[in-house]
Amino acid sequence: MEHSLVLDPIAYYRGPFGSKFGIPRQGMLVPQVEGRIVFCEPYGAPEALRGLEGFSHLWLIWGFSANKKAKGEWQATVRPPRLGGNTAMGVWATRAPYRPNPLGLSCVQLSAIDGTELVIRGADLMDGTPIYDIKPYVPYADSYPQAQSGFAAGAPQPRLQVVIPPQIPLNSRQRQVLEAVLSLDPRPAYQDTPEKNYAFPFEGADVCFRVEDGILIVTDYRK
Amino acid sequence: MEHSLVLDPIAYYRGPFGSKFGIPRQGMLVPQVEGRIVFCEPYGAPEALRGLEGFSHLWLIWGFSANKKAKGEWQATVRPPRLGGNTAMGVWATRAPYRPNPLGLSCVQLSAIDGTELVIRGADLMDGTPIYDIKPYVPYADSYPQAQSGFAAGAPQPRLQVVIPPQIPLNSRQRQVLEAVLSLDPRPAYQDTPEKNYAFPFEGADVCFRVEDGILIVTDYRK
After folding, report:
1. ipTM for the complex?
2. E strand or H helix at A183
């Protein structure tokens, strides 16, 4: 087809989350989450990174590689989690993964350049996500604080109290990250089943939790 | 290659500029420039657009289709126009078109939805540009007015006085658009050759001009 474009990854994201479940829906709400961009050869060459140190934020264009559906299996409407999953919106009015071209777009903080790797914060990406492009964030072209954004007007707010008992084998950095992430409530929208146990992979082991009366209790962290 | 992704256009941009020359380097500086997103079948179905009317701004992910080079012919460094074309910066620190995956990213204003077409303003795209994805602009995830942006810190300012003599066959809307666009100086960086005549395609005819002593004079508009 004319104007077909074949993308190959220029880098991969390495981060703490091993599945989609658990990842904040907009990563910059949780700048505690740190990860790395590991370039594919030869794209991390020092000269390709020259000048990047002057930018505090970057755009990542990445692939929804965890999608189960085949490419092209798009849906004209999706039910955004923030509308409780029961209102259908057009795919172009959402950032849902099931889109004709399964590209994600995320702004992240660039916190350091470590050799040929970029240390970033606030990425809403799964570990191993392919990255197709990186661009510097330029406020005069990218920042429109007054933009109207329909049903996605306000940032999701922390809504759960998080309890991580001292015997759970997590260090203080991990506790800090998980408290921020879990307070935003990673459960599917409006799912509230006190007896249900949830788990997601985080830094190589599974964080297990349940939620009752607005309190999220981490019950285990195990391989 | 693993994680290769084949993109097909979901839409095309229809706008006044028929070549790269003349297009403002960041379109939102010139919201007078109006264009349309014309969806490919079946992506413009009314249900796919549902909810879009609540958003004032959109992201477009598009293809640098006018690139002469073959895919993969990337350069580790580029010489950004705003640095006068004589300082090499790493490709990841710029938005230059010659990148491993030739994707562009632009924020535009959504001014109307006209049937299955979107009327937009401020696009820095050439007429006929393939669009691969459209996402709603969400300020809490996308707007960082305080972000540091290295060498691209300030928005380019109008720097030429534009004179369009009354006998040039342009209507008042066209004059308004061209005055805004031309005041930003479309010439290659630091090129200042008073005797040189420039031209670029605009709405089906060629705008011809020259520049002397900071004054840009439109000399013709002809088929």
Report:
1. 0.93
2. helix A172-183
